Amino acid sequence: MGKYNIKSLHVITFIMIVLSLLTTSMGLFYTTGGTPFDVVNQYGDTVKIYGDGLYAHDSYFMAPINRGTDFTILFFAIPMLITALILDIKRKTLRNRLFLISVISLFTYYAASISFGITYNLLHLVYIALFSFSLFGLITAMGSIDKKQLAEHIGNKLPYKGIYVFLALTGICLIVAWLPDIISSLIAGRSLELIEVYTTAVTYVLDMGIVGPVALICLFQLKKRSGMGYILLEMLLTVCVIMGIMLPIQSVFQLSAGIELPVPVLVTKVASFVVLAFFALYFNIKFLRNIKG
């Protein structure tokens, strides 16, 4: 990849940092002084609306989740992206570039979530810009890696069997966590229980439609020792680690807002991802240490 394109990647990453600082800080600290209120949605259900700040028109259930996401991105993901950018500028190694790619993939997921999942607000154009820069930054970054060279630089000490199990479980868990909600709503002949004021559940779409299949594709590619498989693996491991941090934080924000979370929900939708995150962190450390270049 030419020096011009590498410089473009670094500029894109810097813009992503600036945009995400704006979205997260506004989500956490901006207030309008409003209070919750009720509305009737298109299905005739009464929905409690948050009423304050950037998420004034989001539901009282979803707004704390959004704020928990903002907290995680601001205090965990953005420092990671800044670190990845600095490392890639200082030393253009395969290890540093893979780390940068993986963090950019996390921001692509985050940007897609807020662009499609949050009720229209004053930062809508910023959401679109962040999604665009993240997506094309990810494409540019992935194109900067020589896939054949990457496969040759991976050491032979990776715990492949454990990684295969992890990838299979990740793909399965992402389906098991969300599919019952959809199936039960279809059987009942109505929309999702927590559809509230939204048209769809964007997390279901991203996790079941993209992340889950990517985990299975990654498993297949790794069995062939494909360079793309290693890129996808690093992306998935980083995203899983941050998800394991984000979900408990989101739950804390919900509980602090007075929202009751049933124990089965905490087990299936939080604890399972935390466990996966621990394994993801272990495999990520092993993986990065085994890259020779």
| Mean pLDDT metric | 93
**Biggest sheet: strands, sense, closure?**
2 strands, antiparallel
Unreliable residue stretches? none
Overall radius of gyration: 20 Å
- Structural domains: how many: 1
What best-fitting shape do the alpha-carbon axes yield? globular
Distance between the termini: 16 Å
What pattern of helices and strands is seen along the backbone? HEEHHHHHHHH
Per DSSP, the total helix count is 9
How many strand units? Answer: 2
Helical fraction: over 70%
Structural class: mainly alpha
SS strand fraction: under 5%
Strand order, largest beta sheet: 1-2
Task: Give a verbal description of the structure.
The chain is mainly α and 293 residues long. It has one domain (3-289). 73% of the residues lie in helices and 3% in strands. It has nine helices and two strands, in the order H-E-E-H-H-H-H-H-H-H-H. It has a two-stranded antiparallel ribbon.
List the defining traits of the structure above:
293 residues, 2 strands
What's the short version?
The chain has 293 residues and is mainly alpha-helical. It has one domain. It contains 9 helices and 2 strands, in the order H-E-E-H-H-H-H-H-H-H-H.
